[in-house]
Structure formats: C-alpha cells, structure tokens
C-alpha cells in the first residue's frame, strides 16, 4: 500500500487549488495532522472542511478517517516524535521562550533527517564547479541568502546576490556553466520562482532550498535541499535553513581547502590595507 506522502506526490499536479493547499499542509505537518480533526486541518489550510474530505477521496481513501489512520501509521514509526508531541500537548504550559527554543531545536532535528551528507556534497561540488554563483531569495529569505552570498563571495570570489529590484538586469547574464542558488519558502515569491525558471531555460544549474517536496521550486531544481521553517511566532523560522547553508560552506572548505585559504588570505590583506576592522585605542588621561 502506498503511503500518503507517495499518493500526494503522485496526484499533486492534478489536484484543485483547495486540495493542493490541504495536501501541502499535511505533507509539511504530518505529525500534527495525524492528531487533528478534518475541521482543524481545514482551518490550518484556509479551505472548507469539505475540501479536506474531498482530498481524502482524491487520494483513493474511502473516508477522512481512513486517511488519518494512514497518517498515524507513518507517525507511529517515529516513536520519539510521537512521544515528544504527546508530551508537549499534555504537560503544563511552557514559557514562550522555552517553546521558542524547543521549536527551533525540532526544526533542526527534522531537517537533519531530511538532508544527508551526499546532498550537501553534491551542492558544494556544483557550487565549486560553477563559473559564477547567483543567489536569489528576498523578504524573510534574505536572512539566509544575504549571509550565504557574503560568505561565498568571501571564500570563492565569484558569487553575486541578485537584488530584488534588479532581477531583469542580472538574469540576462546567467549562462550555461553558472549555478543559481534559490531560497524559496511560503509564500513562494513569484519573482524568485520566475528567476528560477529563466535560469533553467538558460541552462544554468539550479539548487533550491525550500520547505517541501511539493514546493513549486522543487520540480524545477537540479538539487532540492529541504529545511523546516516552523515557528510558534507570527514569522517563519530560518534557523534550520541557515544550518543547511552553513553545512554547505563547511563542505566547500573541506573540498577546496587550498583555494579557499588562498582567497581568505588575499581578502585579509585587503582588509588590513583598508583598515576595515575595529581597533582598541588607549585612552589618555
């Protein structure tokens, strides 16, 4: 019997917009959805409850209850996750700060389960082989892309962060042999998505950092890296995505130690030349 994740992946493109919203929510929140009612899933997906039931039928389940049983079977396979979830819903209310750090830690744990060494190695290799690296992703995604592009420029010298206001001008220079690194999280910025499509049309390689295999970015990419972004606050968390790009940076340093070291040494010389650092001075009395 196919798992619900497989059924969603197979049927996703044929689903209506409302059903896609529900499918995406379930795929991204398996543990939570396994314990939620159809009404609660509908509220989280911003659709009607009837749409949740229709999705169950579209995925070849006889009812929502059967679909939920399938969800629970998947979740039970991860006993630690179930234990943690039940504990978090039964125990006394945590302080907001403890909840915050608990969620951040869970994002890292879930991301670690989704990203393996081979993917990080592949990403680092593609970036090292690139004639030029273009980084795209704005709004909240800038917390990842601005950091990543700065460090890549510092290490390799051939990386450029595409400014949101200058997409057309920069995209015209993307060519075969280049790599585009795109960060695409809900709400899935249409401008970043269009840039990604154009980069593929221009035969550049595309690495995507996103939240789900159902993300519109995923089907375009040569390499998909998944990182969780759940938050107890009103803004998504980018702690796990930052951990992924840090892993790529570390792998690049390992694979091309001499090249990176040479670039860093030249950069330090220029920083010293421009005295671009803070110096403590003795205050005369």
From TrEMBL:
Pfam families: HTH_6, SIS. Residues 2-78 form the HTH rpiR-type domain. Gene3D superfamilies: Glucose-6-phosphate isomerase like protein, domain 1, Winged helix-like DNA-binding domain superfamily/Winged helix DNA-binding domain. One of its GO terms (molecular function) is DNA-binding transcription factor activity. Keywords: DNA-binding, Transcription, Transcription regulation. One of its GO terms (biological process) is carbohydrate derivative metabolic process. The keyword Repressor does not apply. InterPro entries: Homeodomain-like_sf, HTH_RpiR, RpiR-like, RpiR-like_SIS, SIS_dom, SIS_dom_sf, WH-like_DNA-bd_sf. It comes from the Bacteria. Residues 123-258 form the SIS domain. PANTHER family: GLUCOKINASE (PTHR30514), RPIR-FAMILY TRANSCRIPTIONAL REGULATOR (PTHR30514:SF18). This is Transcriptional regulator.
């Amino acid at each position: 019997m196919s798992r619900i994740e497989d059924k969603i992946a197979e049927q996703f493109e044929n689903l209506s917009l409302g059903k896609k919203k529900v499918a995406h929510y379930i795929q991204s929140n398996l543990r939570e959805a396994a314990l939620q009612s159809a009404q609660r899933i509908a509220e989280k997906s911003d659709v009607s409850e009837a749409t949740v039931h229709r999705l169950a039928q579209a995925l070849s389940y006889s009812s929502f209850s059967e679909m939920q049983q399938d969800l629970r079977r998947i979740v039970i396979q991860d006993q630690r996750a179930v234990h943690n979830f039940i504990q978090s819903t039964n125990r006394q209310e945590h302080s907001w700060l403890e909840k915050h750090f608990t969620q951040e830690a869970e994002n890292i744990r879930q991301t670690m389960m989704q990203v393996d060494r081979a993917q990080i190695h592949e990403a680092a290799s593609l970036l090292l082989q690139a004639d030029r690296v273009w980084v795209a992703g704005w709004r909240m995604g800038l917390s990842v892309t601005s950091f990543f592009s700065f460090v890549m420029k510092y290490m390799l010298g051939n990386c450029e962060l595409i400014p949101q206001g200058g997409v057309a001008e920069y995209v015209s220079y993307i060519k075969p042999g280049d790599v585009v690194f795109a960060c695409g999280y809900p709400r899935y910025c249409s401008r970043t998505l269009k840039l990604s499509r154009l980069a593929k049309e221009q035969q550049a390689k595309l690495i995507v950092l996103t939240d789900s295999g159902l993300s519109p970015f995923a089907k375009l990419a040569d390499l998909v890296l998944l990182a969780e972004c759940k938050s107890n606050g009103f803004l998504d968390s980018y702690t796990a995505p930052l951990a992924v790009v840090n892993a790529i940076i570390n792998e690049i340093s390992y694979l091309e130690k001499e090249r990176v070291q040479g670039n860093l040494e030249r950069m330090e010389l220029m920083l010293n030349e421009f005295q671009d650092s803070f110096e403590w001075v003795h205050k005369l009395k």
